[in-house]
Amino acid sequence: MARGPSSPAELPPEVIQEIILRLPPRPSCFRRVSLVCKLWRRLARDPGFIRRFRLRHLHAPPLLGFFGSFPRFVPAYEPPERFTLPSIGAVDNIRVLGCRHGRVLLHGRYRYGSLQLVVWDPTRNHDYVFPGPQNPLHPGACVPPPFHGSLICVHDHDGHGEECPSRPFRIVILFYGSGCIYASAIVYPQHAWWRDLVSLAAPHDLFSSIQPGVLVGNAMYWLSSRQSKIVVLHLDTNRLRLIESLPMDSQGSYDYYQIIKAGDGGLGVAAIRGSHLHLFSLTTISDGTAMWSEYRTVGLDTLLSPLVKAIEVSDEDASTIFLATINGIFELRLESMEVNKVLQRGEVIPKIAYRSFYARGGSGRDDGENEVAAQQQV
Questions:
Q1: How far is CA 329 from CA 16, 43, 317, 339, in A?
Q2: Closest Cα partner for 165 from 154, 179, 176, 173?
Q3: Which residues touch 259 (CB under 8 Å, ≥6 apart)?
Q4: I need a labelling partner for 59 at 20 to 30 A (CA). Which of 22, 68, 166, 178 fits?
């Protein structure tokens, strides 16, 4: 009778990689795999395998931490899941605009005073720097602050399954001037200039109250709960429009709104009143009219207690909301209603979630406690 392998190292390399491929995309998993033996460590760090791993989990990159408005990174979770990022470098007055699939969109003013945009990949410590768009009302001048910026990977809307670092990206800048909201875009490196300028007549109060953009399907959405409206940019037709209302009940507006991906994959809104979460989808009825339809209600006090409030966090994953309690900050996954603690009480209030893949041996760095914790758990 043939003797089977007596240790993990005796498994065929292709079998080992199939095992690792099915692990959750969390930093600690790669650390633990690397501690099994030298062969497993080498196979897990192989560039071709890492690319396969990223492609398998392309639409579910794990949450690694948060940025505030300025690029100070706050790791999520507890060791061994948490790690730190390298600094961005010598750019003055940097502000984080958004994140998408491991890349970060920032803006700042360099030594010559011109507006610059930076797309930064922290796990590879690589960045692209280029000038921001010009103000269409004042040629030669930068767009006026404040403005919103969104980073979109090309595969988000062209249907190809390649990992983001090998794909071009699109940046959309939303700004205001002379009674209009303007949107301008650049696709890098396919085009080295800003194009596709469109505008929408709107009051300044609407623009000044909108939250960072959320990508759902093939459109960007900016929510203004104060004005009960949503600004929409359709990426395929490059058209700006308004959704004129948000869900309401017999008491009027809800206490909190957030754009989400609905259960059918289309545009949705999460609304909270008291301790109850209401999920809505935007549906079109027979005469072409769009209306909000509630498809789920959840008692948050059955998931977390005591609940303090929902907090506004810009997150590329449009299926998560963040909830603050006296015990810390928690993420609520809307698809599964799974709750996980992401920050301790007293840590900074997060503004922008950062999601990416991290394999031991890459540019991301752990905080020194990770290796000890991983060794204790293997």
A1: 36, 36, 17, 10
A2: 154
A3: 211, 214, 216, 221, 223, 230, 267, 268, 269, 318
A4: 68
Cis bond before residue 136 (omega within 30° of 0): no
Angle at 200 between CA 197 and CA 204, to 5 degrees: 115
pLDDT tens track for 321-345 = 999 998 899 999 999 999 999 998 7
Mean pLDDT of 82-96: 65
The 8-class DSSP code of residue 357 comes to -
Sequence-distant (≥ 6) Cβ neighbours of residue 333 within 8 angstroms: 319, 320, 339, 340
212/190 Cα distance (integer angstroms) = 25
Helix (H, G, I), strand (E, B) or coil at 84: strand
- CA 107, CA 174: separation in Å to the nearest integer? 13
Long-range pairs for 339-344: beta carbons < 8 A, 24 or more residues apart: 339/303, 339/304, 340/77, 341/77, 342/63, 342/76, 342/77, 343/66, 343/74, 343/76
Express each pLDDT in 282-320 by its tens digit: 988 777 788 999 999 999 999 998 877 899 999 988 999
Buried b (16+ CB within 10 A) or exposed e, 216-227: bbebbbbbbbeb
Which residues face 290 on adjacent strands?
284
**What is the percentage of the chain residues whose pLDDT exceeds 70?**
81
223 forms beta bridges with 230
pTM above 0.85? no
Phi, psi of 202 (to 5 degrees): -160, 150
Q: What does the alpha-carbon distance between residue 147 and residue 105 come to, in Å, rounded to a whole number?
A: 13
d(CA 178, CA 32): 57
Q: pLDDT grade, residue 10 (50/70/90)? A: confident
Q: Cα separation of 189 and 222, whole Å?
A: 26
Quote the Cα angle for 236-283-355, to 5°. Answer: 60
Q: In what order do the strands lie in the sheet with 352-355?
A: 73-75, 63-67, 352-355
